[in-house]
Amino acid sequence: MKKDQNEKSSNGENIKSPDAENPYRLLDLKLTKVENWAAGVPAVVAAFSDLIEEKTLVRGTKALFKMNQTGGFDCPSCAWPDPDDERSSLGEYCENGAKALAEEATTKKITADFFKENSIYDLAQLDDHQIGKMGRLSEPMYLPENGTHYEPISWNDAFKKIAQQLNTLESPDQAAFYTSGRTSNEASFLYQLFAKEYGTNNMPDCSNMCHETSGTALRPTIGIGKGTVTLDDFYDTDLIIIIGQNPGTNAPRMMSALAKGKKNGAKIIAINPLPEAGLMGFRNPQEINGVLRSGVKLADLYLPVKINGDMALLKALEIILIELEKNNPGKVFDADFIREKTTGYDAFTEQFSRYNLDDLAQLSGVSKEELYQAAEMLAFKKRIIVCWGMGLTQQPNGVDMIREILNILLLKGSIGKPGAGVCPVRGHSNVQGNRTMMIDEKPTDEQLDRLQAFYGFNPPRKHGYDVVRAIKAMHDEKVKLLFCMGGNFLSATPDTSYTAAALRKLNLTVCVSTKLNRSHLIHGREALILPTLSRSDIDMVNGQAQFISTENSMGVVQSSKGILKPVSDHLINETQIVCRMAMVTLGEKSVINWMRYHDSYDAIRDDIEKCIPGFENYNIRVREKGGFYLPNAARHGEFITKEFGDRAPFTLTEVPQNELENDEYMMATTRTHDQFNTTIYGLDDRYRGIKNERRVIFMNQKDIDKAGFKTGDKVDLFNYDDNIERIAPLFIIVSYQIPEKNTVTYFPETNVLVSVNNVVKDSNMPASKYVKIKIRKHDPEIYTKIKQL
Q1: How confident is the model at residue 7 (pLDDT cuts 50, 70, 90)?
Q2: Domain holding 783: CATH number?
Q3: pTM value?
Q4: DSSP string, 424-444
């Protein structure tokens, strides 16, 4: 790739504008066997293949054996917890964790010469997979207004540019500070502290796109916005229900916990539109049974629910459970628990007089026979764990569906006791810790009062922008500067064309990153890339190797210490980036000793414990083996809510009808097995039988036949929410086991179809699992129409 010499004019005119989307081109799709089990030897081979591809076999393998180990570093991928007891000496990582590590530990790096040779326009012609494989960013870069190539800039000058832009805004609320889930506790605490001292609560973060729905549902109901179970609960329980979540790809180490639970007698119900391999079976590559034999069968019962048919399914189960309780008084429901711990039971049960089981079964897509099987598995068990992922949280009624799950657990008394409770399976490895550290556009008065009492400044009280509101505010030019602490904002967010237009209206975009991504190519009038250390890198401060801390899905705070020599001497850790930005921006106006934090992570932790409950003796406890659990009253059966005191309320919800026109389909976006969030490791989706392609749409064969298509046909996808035509061109139809009128595609390729106004009620998350689309035969002239739009 070389720069386009004719691309730039002196006054900035006639500059080519790169597309916000991945290139509209097909590769060479090969359909392979759809698997009914996950992991095994192929996962090991895939993991080490990535280390070889990144030219880091020795260096990367050394790091793999320290990842998720005591005294090592936390995996930069998912937030599944590490065992509290002994950890496997063969490795506490999964295939996707190894791929994430390979891209961190790579010896390939991007220098100033790379940007000199490659214009932004040229780089945008690559797909996200190609962009991500360029290597580690190695020095700060700056894009001037009307520029076509990033240019090197010193760290001092970069901070001066940020400060100059921030200090000339008419209001602090014209800035927004985004956070990725990989940011450490220490950096997250400083980041939100800087934003508040600067004067804004505009802190959109990745929770706004993954599990905001979970917290919104749980907090008013059980008093905490987190899960209530520990890893040990999975080992000693009676029933595990997995709904809207795919362990084999999203949290592969979860399958080890499921297998251990099965060995100890637990049953598993899987509820999902697709029969994912990670729900069906697990071959543990660290055991003989997983290498030479068939491994472990996971799901005892699979319920093929329609997209957004989950609420009808849950209501149907409750009808059957009420019937079973009438026939077996006191044996199905926990009357003592309901009387002592809940409120609203009578109104809850009375609602079912207006529901019909046959109608609910039809709406759910699950047969009555299967519903009865599931209800009977639930009926006489008390130790029940329910897990969910974005298959629930990204639906428009996701908050209600999670509360309906809680209704079932409250009926059974199956929360707040060993082997029972809720488990939202979080994504990024510290997304939960970010929120604990007050990365939140809606901080509580109690949180702000503690900051004010300790630091002596008055933090802003007005709620800020979440991700969706921030995009709209950028579009309306109410926000003029976006600072991204990690992540790939453009590719993670909905309504890609709308979001790209919003980003281009900004005065400045700043991205703290380890690798190149599409958000560096769709930018404000000016742009900065600030390269930072990764989890696996040694972090030296004043001659001492530092450690950071993170919080996993089950509320355990643990240390993380990198072991690899950084690929460049020009990388700065995230905490020092925040401190230097604060010192240059706020200067003598600040009441905070930022230099103290700049020089000592222990100092940061000392002050976190004074501002956030549950972190007493932080520096001592985080150094203990395995770290420590944060307080979780609901885990012990104490439900402390503002509105209902010490009782958990039953919630009344509605069942959606989900009507579609004859030529409409419901689409849910998902990720491939070769992908973690917006990071594309490869072009295969091994478990679903897809090789070397991402632009596919999974359809039921009956729908394919009825529409006059056939497998392999090229089609264009359309969405018409808000009376706006959104187009995702050039996809290949793949026949798949999926409910009729339902389709599945990969993100970020189809994020363009998700309206910025298609959100989850109450949580305001993008409803990316509920998108109405139309499918038409591919028109080669569609690209002209897209350009006009």
Answers
A1: very low
A2: 2.40.40.20
A3: 0.95
A4: E---BTTHHHHHHTT--SS--
